[in-house]
Design a protein that fits this description.
With 206 residues, this protein is an all-alpha fold. The chain has 12 helices and no strands. Helix 1 crosses helix 12. The protein starts with a helix and ends with a helix.
Length: 206
């Protein structure tokens, strides 16, 4: 595995010449997820509004998955046309069930203990990339494989995320505009991290 600085530099290198594409992809995903997830009925009738909002959120889980995986395609220099954001809808049930299962596991751990729940979220961090590279496996298997791959690496990924706190502050100061660049940067770094984890895991297994 490489250092945090190396992963950040690799992410910047992958995004060179593609920042506009990445920002527009982010804007598309953010707008759809935000607009569709905002329910005006919450102000009038909160309970039905929350139920409706929850249903819409579940329906859009493949888009959230596709947005993360988009940056795996980017660092691999594959086709990153904007329609790739919606790749998850072609395997809707598999992706939705996997994301729901991951969310339930994290939530259950958080209900038990906050810190172990936070740690577990990092154990599951490679699930989306694994689902992309292994279309034949289930969500449960992808989560289990992510846990195996992340053994001994959770702290490094956490520190990678923590190192971007300056970008996070800047994103808030720019009224959210900075997130159009921060998230691609972060997701691209995660994608590079995954590529090394995958290579390391494959070498240990075979």
């Amino acid at each position: 595995m490489k250092t945090i600085s190396e992963y950040k530099n690799m992410a910047l290198g992958s995004l060179e010449g593609k920042w506009t594409k990445a920002a527009v992809a982010s804007l598309i995903a953010f707008l759809i997820l935000e607009v569709a997830g905002s329910s005006p009925s919450l102000l009038v009738d909160p309970v039905p509004g929350m139920v409706g909002q929850g249903i819409v959120t579940i329906l859009l889980l493949p888009l959230a998955w596709g947005y993360l995986v988009y940056f795996l395609l980017l660092i691999r220099e594959e086709n990153i046309d904007y329609e790739r954001l919606f790749d998850g809808f072609s395997q809707y049930v598999r992706i939705t069930l996997a994301e729901l299962l991951k969310g339930i596991y994290v939530l259950l751990w958080l209900f038990l203990f906050i810190i172990p729940g936070f740690v577990k979220s990092y154990s599951y961090a490679m699930t989306e990339f694994i689902l992309k590279d292994n279309p034949e496996i289930s969500g449960e298997d992808a989560i289990c494989l992510s846990m195996k791959m992340m053994q001994g690496h959770k702290m490094q990924l956490f520190l990678l995320d923590l190192s971007m706190i300056g970008w996070l502050i800047l994103s808030f100061l720019t009224l959210g505009i900075g997130f159009l660049f921060l998230v691609p940067y972060n997701y691209s770094a995660h994608a590079h991290f995954y590529e090394d984890l995958k290579a390391e895991y494959d070498n240990n297994v075979f």
